[in-house]
């Protein structure tokens, strides 16, 4: 690469210390970075849990490589980008339970912005370890999965943080104790009850569902009992779809042989109850459902359920009328898409199965008459499927393969373009502006991209092996964290992805030697 920015004076000052302490041994004791960096506007942000600080390294062309350290609350252990239209990251910290030599400090959830501003919400002395954020970035739902260093704790307690509110607001943090252990969490999107917008959290527990109104957290959760199967297995929803047009919530659970349809109706509230009532309908599919999709045409909703690996059930939600089609091969997944042809919108699903190569498309037009003849195979990937990722306009998808390589599936053209790799690609990063997928598996020394339009591929040799990467596409950069006791990151210019336009920053961790 054309430029290495190093902290030379600090390195020279530390050389005397190295004679007594081998660098790797010394720095491993001093530095503990979270494994995945986080993008924040023009910065790559690394969280040092031992020093309890965020290291913000600039990726911009003007001040490339400059870094700043931001003190964090006690015990940071998780950091993610805040979704929605926010240039912030969220940092969850456990606090400290206290000892005879150290004061107790509360757990916190913090918002860090690109100017280094930090806003923290206190979460009490019994830390949460798992957070779920809604797509708009307004709320964080916190639960506990593991045990903490406390004498007694309540695993059924959850916390809801309103990120729009200031920490001093009385409604900024709400603690709720449920009647069961929270296992899965789902946020509503574009959901209404009789024309009134509703922001709900749907919390799944053992055979129980809790509905929490985010706009009225002072009200008790609505409790829905789902019961058990005939074999006394609990019903724990794995997939939840919010039907905005009919105020229905559709639930699929691995142990259940049917689909649950939860209807929400408006009612008067006395202040501590939600202003909606619930009723449950059972949509019978009589086999174990593995996936479902919902779409709406002219205020009429249709549910398509994949069940028992061999059947698809097309259901008119309003009438309950069901059409069953059979598959020629095992199918466990469905992904909805639509097309516009001659100003007419048609509705379809892509059908596939993890660990298989074949892909099919089903047309829902005239499905009652066609009875399976509207299912066609569009091709196979070179390697078995693993993970499907919708991209761009929604009608092209990326499929990561089980072992090596990836494929781009164009459902409009019904084509599959496969690309091979000598590595297992665990993740990909979409640069929407330039229509490229970036990949950089850990433990090797290259990053590469696939151009979605042309199919062009290109890879770039780095100065060291990849540990993890983070897209900083707002600055036109791809950030790469390398394994280094001194601290080494690289920034690739995604507009000009070559060594001439890339640069590295080495030694940003060395300043800890002089503390």
Question: Could you please describe the fold and organization of this structure?
Answer:
The protein is mostly beta strands and 515 residues long. It contains three helices and 43 strands. Strands 1-43-42-41-40 form a five-stranded mixed beta sheet, with no helix packed on it. The protein has a four-stranded antiparallel beta sheet with strand order 2-3-4-5, with no helix packed on it. It has a four-stranded antiparallel beta sheet with strand order 6-7-8-9, with no helix packed on it. It is globular and about 70 Å long. The model is unreliable at 3-29 (pLDDT under 50).
Q: Estimate the mean pLDDT confidence.
A: 87
Q: What percent strand?
A: over 45%
Unreliable stretches: 3-29
Gross morphology: globular
* Count of DSSP H/I helices: 3
Number of strand elements: 43
Biggest beta sheet summary: 5 strands, mixed
Class inferred from helices and paired strands: mainly beta
Widest sheet: strand ordering: 1-43-42-41-40
Task: State the distance separating the first and last CA atoms.
Answer: 31 Å
Share of helix among residues?
A: under 10%
CA-based gyration radius: 26 Å
List the helices and strands and how they pair.
Elements: E1 4-6, H1 8-18, H2 23-30, E2 38-40, E3 43-48, E4 53-58, E5 67-71, E6 76-81, E7 88-93, E8 108-113, E9 118-122, E10 130-133, E11 139-143, E12 157-162, E13 173-177, E14 184-187, E15 191-193, E16 196-198, E17 200-205, E18 208-213, E19 222-225, E20 239-243, E21 248-252, E22 258-266, E23 276-284, E24 289-297, E25 300-307, E26 311-316, E27 322-326, E28 333-341, E29 344-352, E30 358-363, H3 367-370, E31 375-380, E32 385-391, E33 396-401, E34 406-410, E35 415-419, E36 429-431, E37 436-439, E38 446-451, E39 457-461, E40 466-472, E41 477-482, E42 488-493, E43 503-506
């Amino acid at each position: 690469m054309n430029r290495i920015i190093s902290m030379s004076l600090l390195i020279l000052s530390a050389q005397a210390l190295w004679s007594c302490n081998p660098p790797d041994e010394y720095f491993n004791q001093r530095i503990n970075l979270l494994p995945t960096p986080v993008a924040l506007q023009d910065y790559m942000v690394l969280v040092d849990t031992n020093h309890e600080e965020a290291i913000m390294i600039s990726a911009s062309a003007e001040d490339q490589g400059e870094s700043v350290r931001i003190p964090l609350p006690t015990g940071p252990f998780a950091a993610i980008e805040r979704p929605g239209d926010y240039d912030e990251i969220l940092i969850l910290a456990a606090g400290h339970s206290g000892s005879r030599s150290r004061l107790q400090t509360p757990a916190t959830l913090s918002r860090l912005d690109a100017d280094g501003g930090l806003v923290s919400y206190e979460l009490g002395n019994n830390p949460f370890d798992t957070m779920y954020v809604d797509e708009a970035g307004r709320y964080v739902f916190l639960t506990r999965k593991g045990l903490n260093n406390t004498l007694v704790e309540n695993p059924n307690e959850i916390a809801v943080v309103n990120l729009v509110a200031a920490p001093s607001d009385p409604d900024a943090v709400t603690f709720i104790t449920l009647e069961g252990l929270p296992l899965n969490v789902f946020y509503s999107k574009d959901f209404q009850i009789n024309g009134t917008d509703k922001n709900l959290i749907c919390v799944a527990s053992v055979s129980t569902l809790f509905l929490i109104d985010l706009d009225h957290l002072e009200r008790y959760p609505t409790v829905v009992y789902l019961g058990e199967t005939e074999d006394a297995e609990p019903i724990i929803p794995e997939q939840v779809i919010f039907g905005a047009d009919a105020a229905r919530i559709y639930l699929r659970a691995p142990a259940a042989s049917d689909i649950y349809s939860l209807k929400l109706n408006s009612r008067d509230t006395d202040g501590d109850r939600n202003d909606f009532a619930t009723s449950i309908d059972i949509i019978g599919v009589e086999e174990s459902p593995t996936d479902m999709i919902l779409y709406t045409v002219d205020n009429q909703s249709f549910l398509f359920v994949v069940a028992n690996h061999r059947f698809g059930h097309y259901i008119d939600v309003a009438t309950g009328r069901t059409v069953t089609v059979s598959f020629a091969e095992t199918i466990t997944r469905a992904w909805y898409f639509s097309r516009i042809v001659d100003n007419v919108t048609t509705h379809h699903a892509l059908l596939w199965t993890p660990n298989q190569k074949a892909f099919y498309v089903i047309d829902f037009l005239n499905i009652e008459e066609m009875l399976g003849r509207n299912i066609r195979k569009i091709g196979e990937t070179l390697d078995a499927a693993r993970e499907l990722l919708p991209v761009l306009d929604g009608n092209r998808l990326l499929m990561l393969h089980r072992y090596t390589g990836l494929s781009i599936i164009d459902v409009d053209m019904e084509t599959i373009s496969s690309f091979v790799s000598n590595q297992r690609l665990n993740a990909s990063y979409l640069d929407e502006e330039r229509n490229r997928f970036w990949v950089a598996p850990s433990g090797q020394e290259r990053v590469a991209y696939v151009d979605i339009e042309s199919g062009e591929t290109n890879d770039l040799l780095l100065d060291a092996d990849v540990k993890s990467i983070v897209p900083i596409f707002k600055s036109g950069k791809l950030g790469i964290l390398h394994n280094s006791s001194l601290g080494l990151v690289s920034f690739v210019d995604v507009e000009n992805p070559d060594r001439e336009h890339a640069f590295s920053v080495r030694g940003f961790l060395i300043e800890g030697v002089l503390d």
